[in-house]
Amino acid sequence: VRAAAGNLKSRALPERFGFTEEGVIREAEWLYDHYVDHIVYGLLKKEYSGRETDVLHSTTI
Predict the structure, then answer these.
(1) For burial by CB atoms within 10 Å, which of 13, 14, 33, 46 has the most?
(2) Cα 57 from Cα 61, distance rounded (Å)
(3) Please, are residues 11 and 33 in contact by the beta-carbon 8 Å criterion?
(4) Pairing mode, if any, of strands 20-31 and 34-42?
(5) Burial class of 40 by CB neighbour count within 10 A (0 to 12, 13 to 18, 19+)
(6) Would you call 53 helix, strand, or coil by DSSP?
(7) Domain boundaries of the chain, sorted by first residue
(8) DSSP secondary-structure letter at 19?
């Protein structure tokens, strides 16, 4: 998952579902009139195992 560093709402979703912040891609996207950095999130298969029911039954997505 990638999200602009300043987009707190987009960054909140992977953080809420247990993704780990892996790093930053600097100046990854030209947005309006400037470049923005992207935060990259990852989730390993072993971290995901058994979580699919948690995500499917979440009522506050």
Answers:
(1) 14
(2) 10
(3) no
(4) antiparallel
(5) middle
(6) helix
(7) 2-56
(8) P
For the chain, residues with pLDDT lower than 50 are: none
- Give the 3-state secondary structure of residue 47: helix
CB 21 within 8 A of CB 2: no
Helix/strand number for the chain, H first, E second = 3, 3
Tokens of residue 41, six digits: 């999130």
Question: Kindly report the CA angle at 23 between 19 and 8, in degrees rounded to 5?
Answer: 60
Q: What does the pLDDT read at residue 20?
A: 97
Per-residue confidence (pLDDT) for residue 56, from 0 to 100: 55
* Spatial distance between the Cα atoms of 59 and 61, rounded to a whole number of angstroms: 6
Give strand pairing partners of 38. 4, 25
> Residue 35 to residues 11, 20, 46: CA-CA distances in angstroms?
17, 24, 34
